Amino acid sequence: MPSITQEQYFALNNEIITRSKIMDYELCPHYFYRKHITGEITRKTTSSAFAIGGTVDDLLAQIEMSRDIVVFYGDRRTKDGKAEYAELIDDGKIVVNETQYDQIIGISSAVEETSAYKELSDYDKQVVLMISTDILFGMSSKHFKNIAGLPDFIKVDHKKKHVSIKDLKTAQTIEPRKYYWHCEKYGYFYQAALYTMLVRALYPGYTTDFGHIVAEKAEPFRVATFMISESVIEENILKVSEIIKQILSDEKFTKKDISWSDAVLLGENNIDWEEPINTDDQGA
Q1: Pick from 155, 180, 159, 158: nearest CA to 169
Q2: Of the four listed, 53, 77, 80, 137, which is most buried by Cβ atoms within 10 Å?
Q3: Model pTM?
Q4: CATH architecture entry for 6-68+115-255
């Protein structure tokens, strides 16, 4: 298995396909190209939702490349405040206010107190799983040669030939129906599929399970656990595999063209569409 550091995992032009890249390609190949190949589009890491979810991951999964979180007390409306804030961002800091910091601590504490979190004490944390695209798909490309994932917790039981993966998530609600659509929106099912593909390639013949420990972002910071069914994972393995093949075979990364023959008819065939979940979560 190829080996990389977490810093290399997040680096531009690292020749690695990840779940977030798969989602960006599905959104728009040209956007994907500008973000992950040329670097014209930089990933925004300063939004409050990303800061909260990402920092909770750092505190609880104890990743080596821990992000620095800073509480900003200045006034961004002033010249000095703008300069101070910009300097923190340039230094790679995650900047939050006091309310957001208290939220991060509240969520982290709520998760730490659960039996579910304590049961993960013997799991390895933030291990990069990676394998070459040639092994999985018999092909590679100029820009991508490996597929990788970074689960929060993983336990490989060689005696039972079983691999268990658990991920930390934050969400607006732990109500099951809404959390299901939250997983759809932020690609968590793609993530489960990708991790399962990697495990099957790295540990042939081993069984797998995949679950989330999820904390709400508002008090009382309720926590729930969810397991993702095999049927959902298998369905998404097909989708993820197809997108990866498209990425590897794409040489132009152009925007998708549309015509009036592609028009969606509204008002007749979609009365059973699920009501969209209104959330500004970032899927951390």
Answers
A1: 180
A2: 53
A3: 0.84
A4: Alpha-Beta Complex (3.90)
